[in-house]
Amino acid sequence: MRLTDYLDKGASLGSTAPCLTMGERTLTYGDVQQFSRRFASSLAASGIAPGDKVAILSGNDPISFSCVFGISRAGAVWCPINPRNEAAENRDLLDLFDTRALFFQKSYAPLVDSIRQALPKLATLVCIDGETDWAPSLGKWLGEQDSEASPPDDVTMLVGTGGTTGRPKGVMLTGHNIETMTAITLMSYPFEGRPVYLALAPLTHAAGVLCFPIMALGGEVVIMPKPDLGAFLENVQRHRVTHTFLPPTLIYMLLEHPDRADTDLGSLQCFWYGAAPISPTRLGEAITKIGPVMAQLFGQSEAPMMISTMAPKDHFGPDGAIATERLSSAGRPSPLVTVAIMNDKGQLLGRGERGEVVIRSSLVMAGYFKNPEASAEASAHGWHHTGDIGYLDEDNFLFIVDRAKDMIITGGFNVYSVEVEQALMAYPGIQDCGVIGLPDDKWGERVVAVVQPHQGTVIDGAEVMAFVKARIGSVKTPKEVVVWEDLPRSKVGKVLKNEIKGVLLG
Fold first, then answer.
1. By three-state DSSP, how is residue 431 classified?
2. DSSP state, residue 472
3. Which of 38, 106, 120, 138 is the most exposed place for a label (fewest CB within 10 A)?
4. CA–CA separation, 353 and 344 (whole Å)
5. Is the distance from CB of 452 to CB of 431 less than 8 angstroms?
6. What residues does 121 pair with on adjacent strands?
7. Could you tell me the pTM of the whole model?
8. Using only C-alpha atoms, what is the Rg of the chain?
9. 453: β partners
10. DSSP-derived secondary structure letter, 86
């Protein structure tokens, strides 16, 4: 399936049904269909052929997201560009992708203007919500004719991995990859009636691809232009939202929001969480305060969203009580994914043994764009390598203990930062944290915790260390606890351990 097929499937269930809503404005399925056909025709008139790369640089916006379906209908490749990236990173991505056209919101015109001269392949520039001296408005660019290309099921998305470890890579996702992700989503989680999905997180990331299974059921996508948790709660109640997604950091903040207790959240069927490890303690609190609707997903850009899943019901045991031991897992491997654990020699390991999480599935990317070396490395020994360290227990639950690059070796022992972070997050005064290893003459590396306290809370480092030691032992206990009012985060809310380490190393 192409991306536009999800739109067309939803339209077949009723073209006048609401498709994309923001504030008081709603676009029906018919509206978005008609727009996408005109958009596809205009791309062709601009010289964009099937297989060409077309980027969108925009915050969450219904018209911007509608452009995605026009790109797909033209047979071109959607390149979602994160507006929170630095200009240089976006320049590198657009150059790497051989981007032929860029559609951007006017608020990002200065960024585009600063990099466009360095992108000679970028032949078409269009401002979605205005115009500039060097780019027409979408209204002026958009023609009246409609058309549609019918390319083979090939690359449909090109997603940047980010440039935190050097030049970014481009993940090639095919229509079959997205179809597999959509099928797993519809198999694994509750969907009753026409869903209403609330998108607060960036549509350039997880929030965007989760729209496709919603549209396949003719559901409505309610889009939030910025991450406002008060407005999030208001939208859930007003629109009777059934499905939504937030990363753990925002869930922690939601639990403390003054309006949460007075908001009717009874319409929720599925509240997805993912993109970073979640504290089991805070997850238990979310199940109690938000409802028995929490639903985990674990994936990565190279295998989008659904490597493993944990439906709301899987958070509970046969007796109906919260299954505490499962809350630190990433759920079970999803129905269309085979998960194994591999050592550094390419040998598969048994139950309970820790190693790299590897997978086989039609969920896995076609490779890295113009990077055969990285593609070969990621698929060594015939499995896709996730870069995560984990294990499978006797009940086939997957536990992620760390990213391979974040493991700390102290005194000859392997310490997994996620395990230490989970122990820290059980301490009542800590809102969030990051654990890193710093060079140490005695231990090789010493475990250091940087913690963000709840507002108005004073953290005693010695007390925190004693608390952690009682739970996971002295080897894994931080040798140092540093208190910061806030932690550096990525564009999707992940704590940036590299930045923490850089600051502490001076």
1. strand
2. H
3. 120
4. 13
5. yes
6. none
7. 0.85
8. 23
9. 430
10. -
Long-range contacts, 165-168 (Cβ 8 Å, 24+): 167/92, 167/96, 168/89, 168/92, 168/93, 168/96
Amino acid at 49: A
Class of domain 3-176: alpha beta
Distance CA(242)–CA(196), nearest Å, equals: 5
Cα distance between residue 74 and residue 62, in whole Å:
19
What's the rounded Cα separation, in Å, for the pair 445 and 430? 24
- Mean predicted confidence (pLDDT) in 79-86: 86
Q: How far apart are CA 52 and CA 454, in angstroms?
A: 48
* Domain 407-505 in this protein, CATH class: alpha beta
pLDDT tens digits, one per residue of 97-146: 999 999 999 999 999 999 999 999 999 999 999 999 999 999 999 987 77
Chain center to CA of 505 = 29
Every domain range in the chain assigned CATH 3.30.300.30: 407-505
One-letter identity of residue 164: T
In the chain, CATH 3.40.50.12780 sits at 3-176
The rounded distance, in Å, linking the Cα atoms of 227 and 281 is: 24
Nearest to 357 by CA among 401, 394, 395: 401
- Residue 112 class from Cβ within 10 Å (0-12 exposed, 13-18 middle, 19+ buried)? buried
CA 115 from centre of chain: 26
Beta partners for residue 385, in sequence order: 358
Summarised one tens digit per residue, pLDDT across range 363-405 is 999 999 999 999 999 999 999 999 999 999 999 999 998 877 7
